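$ ./design --mode recover --in tokens.txt
reading tokens...
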């Protein structure tokens, strides 16, 4: 007989609304569209902070003093270069491999080359978090260069994480306004409470597996189209529709076929996702700067139609798609870029989990048969 204390699965499929952990890292108010990291409103951080400062905040629960921030930045910079063995391994991967699959495998391989990164005490776990956060962008950029037959660009230790990533990825320094927009995009994607990938990392960390294992699992969870993979699919959708004129017919047909419109809707937000507010602005600004307003205009029209027809709002992935596209980033690299940011939230949650650990082990409501007698194979 089942010993599960109560059956909640039917009423909370997908664990919607179930509180599965206590956390001081971040909170989402879905009704009012408010996102906070350690008490700070996301708009305040996006306006005033840097990605490195937000990482410190997520890991330590407070904003850094200037020497603490400088210290963290120099630790990242000292660790930007990924182990040569991992880069060599990546060169053996099929050139058409999905960048998220490449990232999952190469992040997992980093584990072999971090002799100190296996401990789950704060000191060792933090060292692994610093290395991973510093190197994940290096891996994403290296794969872009490898698969397109270009020379790999070594990190520039004078640059912050956002600038350095764009430099290694494109092989040239980003213009200051684009680097700042990218830095803010990293801030916006850093944490989002118990989303699917963060929950995955906490479940893995809860077994006292190491940080590399937990982050590898997080990358796998993020890759799905219902989670981080949505940004790539938004841009695919815009391209599939092709023009503003085609939107009405395309959308009516898609809704009739019960297709999910990518980048729209959210499991928690029932109003505007505050991150979309910033990304909408970036999509417009970049469109104006590059003289290519097509994607922003199409996105706006879809946003308006989805609000009218379904009462649904855009999420973080909706406008990041056209913003990244206008930064010359290939579609299938949008989700790896999400991971470059979200690793800060994942590692924050992993540290928090280790700090007050209890194995995460829920129950399932058994709906199968019971007392079935074994039938020999020849009698089936
Ligand atoms: N387009 C069209 N209809 C949508 C929709 C979308 N993007 N998202 C939800 N719906 C509809 C569902 O079809 C369902 O309708 P029904 O009740 O008639 O069957 C209803 O809204 C509830 O959908 P459900 O999937 O249960 O909502 P959810 O809260 O679990 O889903 C998402 C949240 C994010 C998974 C969902 O909105 C989605 O798939 N969005 C597209 C993918 C995406 O952008 N993901 C990134 C999230 S940050």
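writing sequence...
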């Amino acid at each position: 007989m089942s010993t599960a204390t109560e059956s909640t699965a039917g009423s909370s499929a997908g664990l919607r609304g179930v509180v599965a952990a206590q956390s001081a890292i971040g909170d989402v108010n879905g009704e009012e569209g408010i996102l906070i990291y350690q008490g700070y409103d996301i708009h305040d951080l996006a306006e005033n902070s840097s990605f490195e400062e937000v990482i410190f905040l997520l890991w330590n629960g407070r904003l850094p003093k200037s020497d603490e921030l400088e210290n963290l930045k120099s630790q990242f910079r000292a660790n930007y270069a990924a182990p040569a063995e991992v880069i060599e391994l990546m060169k053996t991967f099929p050139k058409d491999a999905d960048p998220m699959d490449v990232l999952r495998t190469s992040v997992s391989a980093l584990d072999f080359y971090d002799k100190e990164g296996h401990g789950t005490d704060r000191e060792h776990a933090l060292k692994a978090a610093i290395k991973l956060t510093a190197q994940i962008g290096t891996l994403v950029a290296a794969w872009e260069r490898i698969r397109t037959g270009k020379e790999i660009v070594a990190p520039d230790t004078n640059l912050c994480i956002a600038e350095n990533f764009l430099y290694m990825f494109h092989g040239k320094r980003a213009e200051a306004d684009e680097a700042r927009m990218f830095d803010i995009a990293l801030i916006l994607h850093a944490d989002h409470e118990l989303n699917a990938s963060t929950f995955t990392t906490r479940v893995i960390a809860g077994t006292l597996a190491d940080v590399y294992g937990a982050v590898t699992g997080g990358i796998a969870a993020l890759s799905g189209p219902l989670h981080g993979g949505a940004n790539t699919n938004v841009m695919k959708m815009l391209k599939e529709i092709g023009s503003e004129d085609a939107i009405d017919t395309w959308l009516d047909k898609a809704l009739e076929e019960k297709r999910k419109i990518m980048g729209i809707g959210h499991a928690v937000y029932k109003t505007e996702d505050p991150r979309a507010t910033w990304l909408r602005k970036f999509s417009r600004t970049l469109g104006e700067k590059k003289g290519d307003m097509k994607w922003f205009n199409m996105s706006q029209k879809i946003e308006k139609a989805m609000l009218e027809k379904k009462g649904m709002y855009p999420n973080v992935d909706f406008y990041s798609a056209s913003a990244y596209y206008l930064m010359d980033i290939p579609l299938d690299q949008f989700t790896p870029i999400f991971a470059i940011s979200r690793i800060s939230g994942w590692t924050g949650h992993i540290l928090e989990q280790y700090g007050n650990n209890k194995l995460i082990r829920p129950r399932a409501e058994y709906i199968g048969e019971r007392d079935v007698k074994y039938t020999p194979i020849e009698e089936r």
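exit 0
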